[in-house]
What we know:
By secondary structure, this protein is mostly helical. It has helices at residues 6-38, 41-48, 54-64, 70-76, 84-108, 113-116, 142-164, 171-197, 203-223, 225-239. It is 72% helix and 0% strand.
Amino acid sequence: MIPLHPETVINQYMNKMISVYGIAYLVLLMLVIGLLCMYPKLELHLLLNSWHTEFEDTFFKYYSMLAEGPLYVLALLPILWREIQITVLFTLSELTGGAVLQVLKHTFSFDRPVSAFEHYGNAMLPLVQGVDMHHSNSFPSGHASTFFVFFTCCALFLAYNYKQNHQPGNSRKWFLINASMLALLILAALGAYSRIYLSQHFLSDVCVGSIIGFMTPCLFFFFAKGMITKISNKLYQLKR
Length: 240
């Protein structure tokens, strides 16, 4: 048997790490689609939003706000370490995903939960104090998309960084990176769920938002790495 070239082995490791994130996301997506098929839209929202505590109210209220500014700031931080590529990938993905989101939002113009439940009998919609409720353009969720764009970019560059600094036989690092991949997905999923918890979106809204947020950085990373590198090099030269 012809031994594999070291670069080929490293590429395989990188692809396996990305697969951990991708497969875990697909499993989560299948579970979500199953729920969407099993329950009516409004009943499912009440099912997913039926328990509230003071801690969860505070946590999800402020965690959701990360997609309104803080994640954009965090995406700029790699510039300090001359890692402009991840910032470029996030920017391209967010702009592209945002354009798709706006087209869909204004094409469908679905009601948000607070409006939809006005005509749903005597059901009480749990709300969180201090949250400014929106009434229209529910589908899909922009916050869910932003959360998934950011954490998918992090997962892609975590695997890419491992490729660049690969240390053969370091199984502990391999385990930690795979665990980090799953942690990133959990953080993205929590951001998406926060929109349901706050009754700003339905599960279908955050599901499609997550698909957009997951797909756009993956497509740019795998099919436009040359363009990302070119833009990054130009920005780095301007910075100097």
